[in-house]
Amino acid sequence: MRVLVTGGAGYIGSVVTEELVNGGHEATVYDSLYKGHREAVVPGAEFVQGDLLDGELLRRTLAERGIEAVIHMAADSLVGESVQNPAKYYRNNVTAGLALLDAMRDSGVTRLVFSSTAAVYGEPEKQPIEETDPNAPTNTYGETKLAFERALRWYEQAHGIHYASLRYFNAAGATRLCGEWHDPESHLIPIILQAATGRRTHVEVYGDDYPTRDGTCVRDYIHVVDLARAHVLALGILHERSAVYNLGCGGDGYTVNDVINVAREVTGRDIQVRVGARRAGDPAVLVASSSKIKRELGWEPEFQDLRKIVSSAWDWLQAHPNGYGDGK
Ligand SMILES: NC(=O)c1ccc[n+]([C@@H]2O[C@H](COP(=O)([O-])OP(=O)(O)OC[C@H]3O[C@@H](n4cnc5c(N)ncnc54)[C@H](O)[C@@H]3O)[C@@H](O)[C@H]2O)c1
């Protein structure tokens, strides 16, 4: 298929694009590079530098490249910032997303895969979380992702745009070419590995008095390659229907201390830890049920082992000690 990947110069988008190219699809990355990296656009993909709000450029790109489906990953995704600055999140995650949907409607493109998030569930009443559980976001980031998901329902009804909304839990790991390099970094595994390389002095653990095995929070980590493969599978349903799927590794999840200990083993480095206060709104446990996507699309994670996830991130970091070449 000819696929447009918005945000394809970002962390997950670069790996999704790599999977598309490896699978023989024609991928065009559409990214403003406001956060992503030119170097993260994988060989074999076309690149258009532009903002989602530039409807004209989007329409031209969809038409000139004969795009058949869009994977929409471009967004802002810092939870704390979203609470401080809701306008930024409504503008980029909702208004700019609607500009993309309008361009698709005008160009007759009716297939969309959307990067949603576990944050749409807020603080869930039960674990593992299923797609039918209530949506109750506790921050603006989750709220804006949910708002866009809801818009999708109405665009489908009015304009026949089918969608697959993929609610990711914690994406982690790397390929040989593509890894995670955010500034600021808010994700646990790259933070731990930065502490292993000395780029930061220590890892701050937010609370060790939760009702979990070792008192630290339990989260679900999914290897970014397994996540990327789910996008390619999801493209396959969009000629006839829409769906919402959770994407995590399932199982019992891992505590923050588990992740730190595995990183110590993988890197062979001493990693300093300081225990701080709990953060408001951090649930003790967040684990996905991914049975629906397994059942309906035959998705099977290949790299669900935490050691493989951390090792792949460490290998990439060692090959790219300063991240991508643009210094961002
Ligand atoms: N990383 C995770 O664990 C995680 C978990 C749940 C959901 N998500 C979602 O997955 C998606 C990708 O996450 P990521 O970690 O790869 O993020 P990222 O910041 O690495 O990538 C986002 C990319 O989108 C681009 N972008 C942002 N706004 C744009 C705009 N208006 N126009 C054009 N380009 C724009 C940025 O330049 C960047 O390259 C996001 O939608 C995020 O909300 C990520």
N-to-C CA distance: 32 Å
Describe the sheet with the most strands. 7 strands, parallel
Strand order of the largest sheet: 3-2-1-4-5-6-11
> What order do the SSEs take from the amino end to the carboxyl end, as H and E?
EHEEHEHHEHEEHEEEHEEHEEHH
Rg estimate, integer Å: 19 Å
Shape: globular
Which structural class best describes the helix and strand composition? alpha/beta
- Classify the helix fraction into a percent range: 25-40%
Strand content: 15-25%
Task: Let me know the number of strands.
Answer: 14
Mean pLDDT: 96
H/I helix tally: 10
Q: Which regions have little confidence, pLDDT < 50, spanning 5+ residues?
A: none
Bound molecules: nicotinamide-adenine-dinucleotide
Question: Can you give a write-up of this model?
Answer:
It is built from ten helices and 14 strands. It starts with a strand and ends in a 9-residue tail after the last helix. A seven-stranded parallel sheet has the order 3-2-1-4-5-6-11, with helices on both faces. A three-stranded mixed sheet has the order 12-9-14. The protein is globular and about 55 Å long. It is of the alpha/beta class. Helix 2 packs parallel to helix 4. Helix content is 38%, strand content 18%. The model has no long low-confidence stretch (mean pLDDT 96). Helix 1 links the parallel strand 1 and strand 2. Bound molecules: nicotinamide-adenine-dinucleotide.
Short description:
The protein has 328 residues and is of the alpha/beta class. 38% of the residues lie in helices and 18% in strands. The strands form 4 sheets. A 7-stranded parallel sheet has the order 3-2-1-4-5-6-11, sandwiched between helices. The protein has a 3-stranded mixed sheet with strand order 12-9-14. A two-stranded parallel ribbon has the order 7-10.
